[in-house]
Write the structure tokens for this entry.
Amino acid sequence: MKKLFVLSLLFTVACCGSNEETVVKDITTTTNTVKETDNEKKDSQEFSEGNEIVIAIKEASEEAKKCINDKWPNGVKTVLGGYTPNENEIGLIYDCLDGAGDNNIVLEKQGRDEEWRGMWEGKCEGTGPVMFNNSPMNIEDINFLMPYGQIVGGHITPIDHMYFYSLEGEGGREAYEVFAIQDAFIFNIETREIGVESQQKQEADYRLDMVHTCTFGSYFDLVTKLSPELEKKWKENRNQNGDFTGVYVKAGELIGYVGEQSLDFGVYNYNNPLDFINPEAYESLEPWKIYTDDPFLYFPDDIKGELLKKMMRRAKPRIGRINYDVDGTLSGNWFEVGTNFYEGIDRSKYWDGHLSLSLNDIDPNYWQIGIGFLEVYKNTFIIQGTPSPLEVKVGSGKQIYELFNFRMYIENNPEKDWFREPHEENDILSIALGNAVEGYVMFELIDTRLLQVEVFLNVEREEINDFTNQSRTYER
């Protein structure tokens, strides 16, 4: 990731203490002896940044300006009109200025990745992965596991966590216990009372982020209730601003409960990023995503064996995959030009500008597509057609694929309601395509990292000849 940007701009993110003072001290201030409030400092800083961006754009070469507008339509006009670019847009500007040779001033950038790590720095010990002590849930409470790599609902790019599903328990939302898998520092606890996709009020659930060493962590989400001990620590461990400062837990400690929904679980190795084409595209919203790791590598053999008996994916790797980026092909994650990469324009529907092509998480013989601008839960399809997305290159021309709905079923017991009935070790989950084509998608790889796309629903194949004014352009 870039640590130095070439631009006449100083970009910072919110932080605290001496780090903030170091950043702010370079900003020219008046001789007024009245001490600035935090808000005044922030306003002053943003004003300075905005002026520096305008200067950089005004002084840019025509080649650099064209590059910016090609990647971000009307981007030059937008900035000169007074808009302050966000982190990803700053990166885009940097790339264009640098590519055109307009690299006259050094910009130091602290991205969300550094801000994220700063939440546990100084409060952790050691580096590298550790072995886990126990399963996140009692083995007997788990009905089945779903792997990394699904695309569904607001998850248009392959999902970076697995799912622990249980049968309906007598305790309702608090039916099953959730345990710390190893000694950990829990640095972040978030409460969710509005559904991400529904945007409707719901009963609260919790997200817990933790590290086991300074470079290795994990997370739980959809925890329906914190344990009394953790809830007490969560409320007590606050700074003077009321912000949570973190708590330590021991391996095997009860930290919460789950019921009537899945438990999300992911593992992250911050020393070993995945090979995404543009890792910075994810920083502003999910800085952990590019560090996703396989949890089965760290469970003791006996626990690993019991968990794998419940894993619905049979293909290797059993945990699944999330990164399908292959440069110069259709395969992988894409973001609509001008929509702020992974973060999106509207965080309540951040996935709107996302597009992905990946192998299905249950049956990798099928290619699947996620299309963010379609209706939630009607935005994922199996695609059929040739050539393979991996074989489409720049110059291949327009390619059209069929879109099929699909369902999952137990191959050796097709009538079984596999989602609600007890899992059996010999259950083989498979994919079945719908009986009719739902629509078509047309692609053309314009450049190595620039893709034109149009989705045609309720249209006959014979009616599709070329892109229309409804097509969209994606980048990565």
In short: Residues 324-476 form one domain.
